[in-house]
């Protein structure tokens, strides 16, 4: 009986830790979600052009992702902003029902008159 209770307790603790981790991820992604959400219709192929709000959001995310040195994944404050932005956009791509279109992703920077400082791809995997 004690072993059964211990297993239940360990399972509940693991589930609680996972739920807290997901809530923290959502909170850490709020800024990215707000900035990139106007782009979703474009990168999914629903709209022909990115909206001005999309371009402003991408520009904002570019400003968030600053490098200390070339190849560094950390900004001047030492936080891993590039990874955070990448992971949050990856969450958005996996949560939505439509996949990102390669052509739309490739057209986003020139249509917004900018270059991306963070990755966006059809099969995003920010762990690599």
TrEMBL record:
Coiled coil: none
SUPFAM superfamilies linked to this entry: Bifunctional inhibitor/lipid-transfer protein/seed storage 2S albumin (SSF47699)
Superkingdom to which the source organism belongs: Eukaryota
InterPro entries: Bifun_inhib/LTP/seed_sf, Bifunc_inhib/LTP/seed_store, Plant_nsLTP
Signal peptide positions (record): 1-21
Residues of the Bifunctional inhibitor/plant lipid transfer protein/seed storage helical domain: 29-126
Pfam families with a match to the protein in the record: Tryp_alpha_amyl
Keywords linked to the UniProt accession: Signal
PANTHER family: NON-SPECIFIC LIPID-TRANSFER PROTEIN 2-RELATED (PTHR33076)
Family, similarity comment: Belongs to the plant LTP family.
Name listed for the protein in its UniProt record: Bifunctional inhibitor/plant lipid transfer protein/seed storage helical domain-containing protein
Organism: Brassica cretica
């Amino acid at each position: 009986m004690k072993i059964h209770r211990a297993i239940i307790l360990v399972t509940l603790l693991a589930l609680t830790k996972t739920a807290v981790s997901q809530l923290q991820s959502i909170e850490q992604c709020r800024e990215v979600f707000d900035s990139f959400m106007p782009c979703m219709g474009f990168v999914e192929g629903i709209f022909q052009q990115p909206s001005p709000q999309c371009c402003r959001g991408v520009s904002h995310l570019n400003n968030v992702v600053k490098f200390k040195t070339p190849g560094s994944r950390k900004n001047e404050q030492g936080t891993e902003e590039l990874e955070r932005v990448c992971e949050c956009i990856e969450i958005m791509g996996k949560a939505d029902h439509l996949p990102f279109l390669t052509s739309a992703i490739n057209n986003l920077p020139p249509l917004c008159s900018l270059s991306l400082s963070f990755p966006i791809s059809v099969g995003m995997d920010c762990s690599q």
